[in-house]
Amino acid sequence: MQSIFYERASDPAHALRLAQQPGSKFIGGGTNLLDLMKGGVEQPMRLVDITHVGLALVSELPDGGLRIGALTRNSDLADHALIRQRYPLLSQALLSGASPQLRNMATVGGNLMQRTRCPYFTDTGFDMCNKRMPGSGCAAREGYSRTHAILGASNACIAVNPSDMNVALAALDAVVLISGPQGERRIALADFHRLPGNTPQQDTVLAPGELITAVDLPPSPFAAHSHYLKVRDRASYAFALVSVAAALEMRNGVISQARIVLGGVAHKPWRVPAAETMLAGQPFSRELARQAAARAIAGAQAYKDNQFKIELAQRAIVSAMASALHNAGENA
Ligand code: SF4
Fold first, then answer.
1. What's this model's pTM, rounded to 2 decimal places?
2. What total of structural domains would you count in the chain?
3. Which CATH number is 245's domain given?
4. CA–CA separation, 179 and 181 (whole Å)
5. How far is the CA of 26 from the centre of ligand 1 (A)?
6. What range does the domain containing 239 cover?
7. d(Cα 281, Cα 291) in Å, to the nearest integer?
8. Which CATH number covers residue 8?
9. Over the stretch 36-68, which tens digit does the pLDDT of each residue have?
């Protein structure tokens, strides 16, 4: 049995100091990390408990946006009055994820760092997985691929990011705040998660020893017209086959700006600005939505079991956009 050192940090600076020891991992809710440790996928030498470092606050920013502390629990965030009022898309996405029990434990920072549910990654009985063992190959490319990527994949890995929250945050132009030995930095959510390329073992651009402290949301023009649509194999406690965060700003019946982000199709939330640009300045119609959907999945490549995702993603985009308008009582 491998020994694991456990230390509880008292504040973010203390957490950063503790995490400079080789083999350290931060632990918050532990809903993903502990599962992976039990399965032997993650084998940290030292756990730095960050649940008591004072990063569980939601506060208003001077520009009208919100700052969400990285240790805010998913259920608390989904139910927060200001999130429900100003960012209902985020609340919807959070409530579509996992189960109430898991949402009560899971944190925003942990959700950002959530690892793929590719079965060849989570089961150490399989000996081909570049994400778990770099250089070993990718069993999913020729194996079971129903839940895998159709966009942005590489020869090394076709896994998808499993988070619902990340898809909504990408649509809301969120920014991730990070502290590390070199100081603080801010990274747009869209740039935080990586495509797999030749290094699929790196899910994000976070460097070793860096700590996510918060997520900033800018003021949103999308509160009245947004919708998170999640398509999955069962009604709850299942990861997305495809999900869509659709957010529209409407002025006099015309879309003034749009955000369309796909989940369940790539190694990161999949946003195509060109598809959003097609929508700007146009009144909503299903034909327009279909054209934007086709643009959003341009270049999609299916594998043995997931051809259905290409059509499903397009239909989901059209449906999510229609629901985003319907949510505010407009005729879609
Ligand atoms: Fe591993 Fe990625 Fe291939 Fe899955 S898709 S087996 S995570 S390399």
1. 0.97
2. 2
3. 3.30.390.50
4. 7
5. 24
6. 226-331
7. 15
8. 3.30.43.10
9. 999 999 999 999 999 999 999 999 999 999 999
